Amino acid sequence: MTKFQIFSSEAPYPEPEIYSFSRRDVLALTNDYAGRESETTAIMQYAYQSYIVKEKYPDLSLVLENVSKVEMLHHELLAEAIVQSGGDPVIAGRNCFWSGSAVNYTLDICSMLKADLEGELGAIANYRRTISALTNKSIVALIERIIEDEEIHVAIFRQLLSEFSCAQSRPECRCF
Question: How far apart, in whole angstroms, are the C-alpha atoms of residue 68 and residue 45?
């Protein structure tokens, strides 16, 4: 398996300059932070996957763990932006509290990696929608920087899908 060395962009994360309460910005960030398709879900999904593949695929487990660590940083940065914008970073999207039911619990490696790729592509699309809703341009810069990391994750999952021959007819490839 490829030994991935880079899990995030080397560019620094811009610090948002927030001087006033913005309910609109808080609402725009909430679903990316802790909605169904959020950093919270990505963290928990990659952690779960890392645990279940560790024995059979230790290198894959390490990749998932490292991607999860980057998602944890995104989670923290979004929480800070929410607080600085006058919000409360509860683990909830706009419509409901976060639930473990958002995690994809498949045990098939190829299905797992496809779900991860779809999640990263979805995150990028969601972040682009968030950018269009934000009023604070310094938060936009932060989201654009987070997107750079998500694009690296897309490349990682595409490479893993190829390495596990997931696009081809293949034998069952379960973790257990």
Answer: 8
